[in-house]
Amino acid sequence: MVVLCDAYAATPVKNMLPLVIEDVTVIDVVTARRISPRSVLIEDGRISAIGKGIDIPAGAVRVDGRGKFLVPGLIDMHVHLFNNASHRPANEWAFPLFVANGVTGVREMLSLPEQGPQIARWNAAVQNGSLAAPHILAAGIRVNGDSEQALREQVRNAKQAGADFIKVFSEVPATQWRVIIDEANKQQIAVDGHVPAQVAWLDAASEGQRTVEHMMQTYEACSSIEARVLASRRDLDGDAATSLRDEQEREVLNHFDPATCKHIAKAAAATHQFQTPTLVLSYFESRPSADYTTDKRWPLLRADEQARWRRNLTARTPDDASLALLRWKTSCRIVRTLNAAGLPIVAGTDTPMPLVYPGYSLHDELELLVACGLSNAKALQAATINPATVLKLESTLGSVDTGKRADLVLLDTDPLGDIHHLRDIRAVILDGKLLGREDLDKLIAVNGANQKSDSK
After folding, report:
1. Helical ranges in 129-257 per DSSP H
2. Is 360:97 a contact under the CB 8 Å cutoff?
3. Is the pLDDT score of 454 beyond 70?
4. pLDDT single digits (tens) 118-172
5. Per-domain residue ranges of the chain
6. Phi, psi of 22 (to 5 degrees)
């Protein structure tokens, strides 16, 4: 059971008794195999043994895993926990929703140097059992400046401040982007984010940008007019180039070329760059619902977040929706091509963008990845071992293996048979602490009550 403690958290049991999940089918996400019933022993927050007939310590908490399936905790590789532009409080209201949906790790895409201590406090609270929240596995700091010296200094300062990667955006001019890449390589820190509007996707992959978010510039690369549109942006400043890119979007999407996309996807796959497609964005942008406030999850949003969603959704036009539909259809075709070429994909959502609910949206993303060509196993990898590999954490998480941190999800049904079964969560093990179905339901219920109270 959990002890409810404050507005945004619930405390799992603090006494770290050994925990054993008995006779459970373990899903090996690396090989996409079902491992016949095993017992999984968890001690001090780690998986200490897996097998048949393992020694179970006296007093261990026993969980019956018969007929159930055990997978690693899910990882959302594109979230925003801070509201630095609007200066609103951090999105702590989202923590219970992540955990209740089996999301035990996230990558924070835009933090400030001074927010590092807050991230450390959250992670420490998860580890000591005083907060039910996903581990913040990595956080990025934005770099953008007018001179080479300033850019290099910002990269060095970001690393010194504890950034796990440098975040780049579309408006960074190509010359500045190359300085950032060069200095980041010298400092041995990754560069993730948008491919800038003046940079070709294959160049970004070849020159060392680790991930591409939202398939930025992949649309151009998979079109028959990439050379022309990039040339038209070449002599503009960063903001003007981004504005022109937005004006050209419909034309670029209408010129999707399957043969070109197949060729460039194979070339990009050889660079070992990862894509974070965030399919949920275009999918839900193309399907705005006038009655979104009747969604049962709507009350789970904090009042200021509800207000932001209302403003955004009210401002959308029919033209916005038709463009989003074209973007969604093209995105799906590109993901199918990338997957066929062997380019690795990680699952991210950009939560809490409008209609993208924390935790729930990662399941939406995985289901959309399957709809766009990934197998159930590859979709599961996109939220487990692939993120761990990107973040160089595969020795500690991302699969159910001895010695790894016990961030796990116990399922009633087999996700290799149907990716929708990832929603059939019986329990979540967060840093070795058990949250059963009743506990998870309470996390959601208490979170909703708190948001209702906040909005009065």
Report:
1. 148-160, 174-187, 201-207, 218-221, 226-233, 238-254
2. yes
3. no
4. 999 999 999 999 999 999 999 999 998 889 999 999 999 999 999 999 999 999 9
5. 74-397
6. -95, 140
Tens digits of per-residue pLDDT, 379-429? Answer: 999 999 999 999 999 999 999 999 999 999 999 999 999 999 999 999 999
Rounded to 5 degrees, φ, ψ at 256 are -55, 135
Token pair 């905790």 is found at 73
Q: Which of 83-87, 143-147, 258-262 has the lowest mean pLDDT?
A: 143-147
Q: How far apart are CA 70 and CA 426, in angstroms?
A: 10
Report pLDDT digits (tens) over 177-215: 999 999 999 999 999 999 999 999 999 999 999 999 999
pLDDT for res 451: 84
For residue 282, the model assigns a pLDDT of 96
Which string of DSSP letters, residue by residue, matches 404-451? Answer: SB--EEEESS-TTT-GGGGG-EEEEEETTEEEEHHHHHHHHHHHHHHH
Structurally, what CATH architecture does the domain formed by 74-397 represent? Alpha-Beta Barrel (3.20)
d(CA 116, CA 441): 31
Q: How far is CA 388 from CA 7, 46, 235, 288, 397, in A?
A: 30, 16, 39, 33, 6
Residue owning tokens 């160089």: 392
State the Cα–Cα distance between residues 436 and 378, nearest whole angstrom: 27
Using the Cα atoms of residue 316, residue 246, residue 368 and residue 91 in order, give the sign of their dihedral.
Answer: negative
Cα–Cα distance for residue pair 47/70, rounded to 1 Å: 12
Helix (H, G, I), strand (E, B) or coil at 262: helix
Phi, psi angles (nearest 5°) of residue 74:
-80, 150
Supply the pTM of this predicted model: 0.95
Distance separating alpha carbons of residues 48 and 42, to the nearest angstrom: 5
Q: Report strand pairing: 425-430 vs 408-411.
A: antiparallel
pLDDT at 453: 52
> Exposed, middle or buried, 359 (CB in 10 Å: 0-12/13-18/19+)?
buried
Neighbouring residues of 382: CB distance < 8 A, sequence distance ≥ 6: 345, 346, 347, 366, 369, 374
Interatomic CA distance for residues 172 and 178, integer angstroms: 10
* H or E stretch at 326: helix 318-341
pLDDT above 70: residue 2: no
Q: Strand pairing partners for 211?
A: 192, 274
Measure the CA–CA gap between 276 and 52, rounded to whole angstroms. 38
